[in-house]
Specification:
globular; about 15% helix; mainly beta; 3 domains; 10 helices
């Protein structure tokens, strides 16, 4: 069975995050404006500010709340054509918010190049009209970066609490830390066990994965490959000064069988993922003349640790001060981009029946005015248009293939491989082609399952038409001989391929990697373990 998912965010959650509109701006300088623009065949009514100087020069200021996926797309200049009228290729105004955003991305961000459809969505502030549509639904999407947390499938949010699972599955007891709650999901009333996450849940995450894998797979020999999870490393980092009480929920309920939702056992323990939203301001020169922005005015927050999104609105009441961004020159039609705030929210699809507020992280500013050619222009209030970009990918389960980029000095996630090879009887070979020579790959098992990789090979085609078959540097993956390398939940293995003597990288036109293997879901592995308690008794524990 194949499922489809999108990295996206729920409408209700986003509208609840949009700030309440303040009183109209100073009519003599800046007026709130609702402007209809055409983009990608769509008509959008977006709320913004139109500011005009005494010399009849005009500046448009628009506030957007964007996903971190969109924020990186703006900076990289590779958003869909439908976004061109919203952002263009703006000049970046560097400040402390951008620097912290960049620090998080450098430490914990992941580059992704999806295959399938890209869907974009714009929700105008107030009662403006939104826009949504598909970009290209075939081939590869541009390379973009995200901190994660936008997945909607449960297999991405299985929490590896080995001790809790052992108590539930083997002893039939609900751990003392958990409470019970009735929730409604997909029209059904369910009783769940749950607890708020603590600081200890984010620390030593790799050890938790290792313990969890041993419990499910019962493998006696040491694991092969390596282990890592950038997402939980990021959570440990941003919560280093404290974890808000309602930051994350770990919850579970008993299920009858493993299915497309990717259950890790008969008892499912998931967590509520948080994803980043970035508040930005886009400043556009709508004059026919060059303008100089001498200074930006606004308010700055002093706190940097996680704090309630609702409390951060207090900045709007503070007196304006120079933001220290320096002078900026904009040509006619040119735009500038200002980072204002980073927030971590829980997508509506990940709420799981719990009301979890948003939290701001890091430095924060509120743009309240700007000085254009020596004249002060004031803004009152902010109303953000929401913009999201989602990448579709084929579901099911299976390991992911990452390819090394010398330009980015990092791996790029290119999506799933062997997705139809569920079980030894369906072992298959899967291929992926790349331009030029690619020498380094990573096979990462990101879901609660056990991957069995029998062989990996790389076929290179030279610009002259000659072809060469290359073998990896891992002995067990050289031949199709059933000496399979096993990867559990969270584990990965890195492969390297060397060019034959006398051939240079510049001579290679294409590289095609082939993986042969299959995977097993953890729910099925657990059923083959020493578990003897009938499932109906387990379900009664939570009732």
């Amino acid at each position: 069975m194949v499922c489809w998912f999108y990295r996206s965010i729920g409408l209700a959650c986003l509208l609840s995050l949009l700030p309440i509109l303040s009183a109209p701006a100073n009519a003599a300088q800046c007026l709130q404006d609702i402007r209809t623009i055409s983009s990608g065949g769509n008509q959008m009514r977006l709320r913004d500010y139109l500011c005009r100087t005494q010399n009849n020069q005009s500046v448009r200021v628009r506030f957007h709340r964007v996903t971190d996926f969109v924020a990186h797309g703006i900076l990289a200049g590779n958003l869909p054509a439908g976004f061109k009228s919203l952002f263009g290729k703006p000049k970046l105004i560097t400040n402390e918010v951008y620097r912290d955003y960049n620090k998080l991305m450098d430490k914990f961000g992941e580059y992704t190049q999806g295959f399938g459809c890209e869907t974009y969505k714009v929700i105008a502030a107030g009662k403006g009209q939104g826009m949504q549509g598909d970009n290209q639904c075939t081939g590869k999407s541009p390379i973009r970066r995200s901190l994660g947390g936008w997945y909607q499938q449960l297999e991405y949010s299985v929490f590896p609490a080995a001790d809790d699972l052992r108590s539930l599955e083997y002893n039939g007891r609900v751990p003392k830390a958990y409470k019970s709650k009735m929730v409604t999901e997909y029209g059904q009333r369910l009783k769940k066990i749950w607890r708020y996450a603590k600081r200890r849940d984010f620390k030593n995450y790799n050890k938790k994965l290792s313990d969890y894998n041993r419990l499910i797979t019962a493998l006696k020999k040491p694991r092969e490959g390596s282990m890592g999870n950038k997402y939980f490393s990021m959570l440990e980092y941003i919560t280093r000064k404290g974890v808000p009480r309602k930051f994350m929920v770990i919850y579970g309920n008993a299920e009858q069988a493993a299915d497309c939702a990717g259950y890790a056992a008969r008892w499912v323990l998931n967590y509520t993922e948080r994803a980043m939203l970035v508040d930005v301001a886009v400043i556009e020169n709508t004059s026919s003349d060059v303008i100089k922005i001498n200074q930006l005015w606004g308010a700055k927050g002093q706190k940097t640790k996680l704090r309630s999104l609702s409390k951060s609105t207090a900045l709007r009441k503070r007196q304006s001060v120079p933001l220290g961004t320096g002078a900026l020159t904009l040509q006619p039609g040119e735009k500038a981009l200002l980072f204002q705030r980073m927030a971590f929210i829980v997508d509506d699809n990940q709420q799981a029946g719990f009301k979890l507020p948003g939290y701001v992280y890091g430095p924060e500013i509120v743009l309240k005015g700007l000085e254009v050619n020596g004249e002060r222009l004031d803004l009152e209030g902010q109303s953000s248009n929401f913009v999201s970009l989602t990448t579709g990918d084929e579901g099911g389960s299976c390991p992911y293939l990452h390819v090394w980029s010398n330009e980015l000095n990092d791996y790029i996630n290119t999506g799933k491989m062997l997705d139809k090879a569920k079980g030894a009887g369906l072992e298959q070979s899967d291929q992926r082609r790349f331009e030029g020579f690619k020498s380094r790959f990573r096979i990462h098992e990101r879901e609660p399952e056990l991957a069995h990789i029998d062989q990996a090979s790389l076929m290179i085609e030279l610009k002259s038409g000659e072809q060469y078959a290359l073998s990896p540097d891992i002995k067990d993956l050289v031949a199709r001989d059933q000496k399979r390398l096993k990867l559990g939940y969270g584990e990965y293995v890195d492969l390297r391929f060397a060019l034959p003597a006398g051939i240079k990288e510049q001579q290679v036109a294409h590289s095609t990697i082939t993986l042969t293997g299959y995977y097993e879901r953890y729910g099925e592995l657990l059923n083959m373990s020493k578990l003897t308690r009938p499932l109906d008794l387990l379900i009664k524990v939570a009732e």
